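The passage that follows is intended for readers who have already worked through the single-chain material. We present the inputs for a multi-component assembly, then the predicted structure in tokenized form, and finally a short commentary. You are encouraged to pause after the input and sketch how you expect the pieces to fit together before reading on.
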Amino acid sequence: MDMKNTRCWRIGVAAWVIIAGAGVALFSGAEAADLRVGLVLERSGKDDKSFNASAYQGLKRAEKELGLTTKTVEAPDNSAYESLQRAFAEKKFDLIIAVGFHQLEAVKNNAARFPNQKFLLIDEDAKAPNVRSVMFEEHEGSYLVGALAALHTKSGKVGFIGGMDVPLIRRFEMGFAAGVKKINPKAEVTANYLGVTGDAWNNPPKAKELALDQYNRGIEVIFVAAGNSGLGVFDAAAEKNKLAIGVDSNQDWIKPGYILTSMMKRVDEAVFDSIRMFKEGKFETGLVRYGVKSKGVDYSVDEHNAKLVAESDKKQLEALRAQIISGQIKVPDYYLVQKKK
Amino acid sequence: MKSTWYASFRSFLRAVAGAALGLSLGLLICKLVGESPLKVLHVLYQSSFGSGYDFGMTLFYTAPLILTGLAVAIPLKGGLFNIGAEGQLTVGALAAAWAGVIGASIQSPVIAVVFATSSAFLAGGLWGLLPGFLKARQGSHEVITTIMLNFIAAGVTAYFTLYSIKDPVSAQAETIPLPEAFHLKPFAAFNGAPMGGLIFFLILLAVGIHYALWKSSWGYSLKALGENETAAETYGISRGRSWMSSMFLAGGVAGLVGLVEVLGNSHRFKIGFSADYGFVGIAVALVARGNILGVLPSAFLFGILQKGSASLDLETDKITRDLSYLIQGLIILGVSAEDLWGWIWQLVRRKK
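Having made your guess, compare it with the prediction:
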């Protein structure tokens, strides 16, 4: 026993001498580069096939076309945003991009702490002089795909499946339902939510069950806004030979022929545009809204769904887009409705 | 028989040796993917001790883990495995935020903090008492009931967050912000990291629970029950009372995570704020081998690793967040595989 103890002693002491020594002995050198952009992603990370993936693609495109040095980090938890942004600021990155509404508080704090540092925040408004905040008019894009959904149903039954029951997703639902009713006032919109925890974004099996249930009740098209869980709805659509509508990125390629369209939030465009402006010295802070006008939110048409979306459909949608832009159509916005309550 | 203090110290050294061996394995893997092990060590060191802010953030990650580690370690003394710290801390945190809504007119910070603390403790405690009660009365297995109550806690707290005390101004799923009197002040030396004198309170709490377990008849009963249920009952120890009280205390302690997060950090309850503190707490308690005071260094180790995982992603080219989880896992494995190291040493000695 004693023999073992002394050995353990020695190992313990030796190990910590090595660790401490290495810690003291090493210092990293700073690298030189022209424009440096740091990207802080949410927990779901760059492989979420949707929101964060889109931001990452925008950054990669900017890296290739504009020639800059980039670094991407994925937060391990919701408390890490502030320290990650701060680390970028302390390393004197030129622009720090924070993706997702969870990062609002962190951006606010860091923007005040580093008043000369420029930030780009996606999906929330930081209301700070050194932050460019980009928000998407999800209800407008959802309105357009809602209209398209109504054009593709005979029974007038359409469905909505949301991820986590949060105001942002309610906003999708409200715009979608309004778009459906515009084309077919008698239509019936059934909405289901996957849950109230973060797991709701990552539960394709449950999403598939909900979708099968909706299709069995005679629903012909389902709009899904549920992150990764959407994949389950696409599976169900293929199984039942019905239609689904994707979200955030262009998801038409995932199950060609069964995905009517995708309600794209062009996070990639917002990221790319902002970096390009920064490079050209035209970076403007403050709130920027990406709606159907700038095609920051849009329905997708590509080779995977070209057979589904007819020319006459497109004409109708473009007419609706024009009416939204001119103000003739007021798409109900859940955020505003909620504030009035 | 040597003193228990010496035994704990020896066990601590073994844990340190295990962590070092696990870390070396992790560094070997870093080397294999092409990242310099020295750089990795340097990043981990800088990320936890590099500045006042970094150290403060490390303590911020450590604090909830001390609480959840205790919440697992306390019932473990009586032979119960509490998987429910996640649910207990969620309920406790919501209660702390709700206390701020109810007590919005409270001006005195002392009354406000005491009110929020007792709400959090009571809510978490009752959430823990429920599986304790079911175990004592019906013999329902606590692993099943506590896991299930985690889901119920997530649902219930989300409901109240969204429909009872939701912040009407915010587009996010979060409650009404707490009034100023409820805010815990962080240390200025931490330069913005949300951690202050609370950490000393948590250390005192651990020491207090340690003494309660070793010096009180309550602690004696609980430990006797954990060692041998039948023998303890024969000697007149009430199983039900011990189990229920230990689960109440555990739940209450987990509920105090609400102090760290709600009073100390975001000043409101946000759905999904926990970085799986309740589940990491299980690992914290197991690495501490159920030792109450051992939870403190163990939680600190996990705090360093949680803080470091983001820093490794940021500071190195090859090590992503997932690879740093792997390094974490190896360190945990190194510490927990105590018997394996003993066995290897015996082999080495035999050869000599």
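Commentary: The CA atoms of residues 177 and 280 of chain B lie 28 Å apart. Chain B is about 75% helix and 0% strand. How closely did your sketch match?
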